[in-house]
Amino acid sequence: MSSEPNKKPKVRRLLFYALIFFAGAAFAGLFNVGLEYTNSTEFCTSCHSMKTNLNELQETLHWKSKSGVHAGCSDCHVPKNFQEKMVAKVLAAKDVFHEIVGTIDTPEKYEAHRLDMAERVWAKMKARDSAECRNCHSFAHMDFSEQGKFARRKHQNATDRGQTCIDCHKGIGHKLPKGAKEGDDEDKSGSDKPAEDKPAEDKSAEATPAAEAAPAQEKPAEAAPAESKPAEDKASDAKPAEDKPAADKQG
């Protein structure tokens, strides 16, 4: 009889722990579902002001390409690491606030704030070494032999120059704001400027046709003897014509 009262607290304790376990599992499942939903492009662009971003994204290769590779909002703007992701979610609350108060609720307001918004995103990506870009684009897995000369040189030396993707690739997913300079950070880092290389190549390219055209200008000089022959023929024809009348007069 004395053992029965001792069993009841143990059973209650087990039921309590089981309840906490299942409640925690249910919370974790619902939390994960909600988190994934807030990472969806549909959720991100459900705000009226984000329709502009979506329309611009849909015109790029990040949205549609021949290989079928696709990047949505969270692929470029939300970290993969859980702690950093939670920080990004909390900071995103300000976007909801500005949507409610109408800070960028018209195309005119949006354009007025576009450069400031873009520069803040670029700064964040720069600070993270373009981590979201490098989830898909990795220097280690690039086939430089398939790239153009300029891109190959930039990609191979980017790490040594302390550069990251966003330094050169602004305005890729969305329209470049007015007043922004693509690759501005790249030029400040002391890297080679393509504008300085091209004129040198153009001059050498222009010099080649000039050198090749030189023999074509000398050909008329070779034709000079052909022009002098008619002159000699005229002279030889003219002499007999002058002698004959003289002979007739004497006769």
Please explain how this structure is put together.
With 251 residues, this protein is an all-alpha fold. The chain has helices spanning 3-38, 41-44, 51-57, 73-77, 82-91, 93-101, 107-127, 149-157, 165-168, 184-188, 194-222, 224-250. It has a domain at 40-194. The termini are far apart.
Protein structure class: mainly alpha
Low-confidence stretches: 184-251
Quickly count the helices. 12
Radius of gyration: 39 Å
Instruction: Please give the share of residues in helix.
Output: 55-70%
Order of helices and strands: HHHHHHHHHHHH
Roughly what fraction of the amino acids lie in strands?
Answer: under 5%
Mean of residue pLDDT values: 76
Gross morphology is: extended
**Largest sheet features:** none
How far apart the termini lie comes to 178 Å
Number of strands: 0
Give a brief rundown of this model.
The chain has 251 residues and is an all-alpha fold. It is built from twelve helices and no strands. The protein is extended.
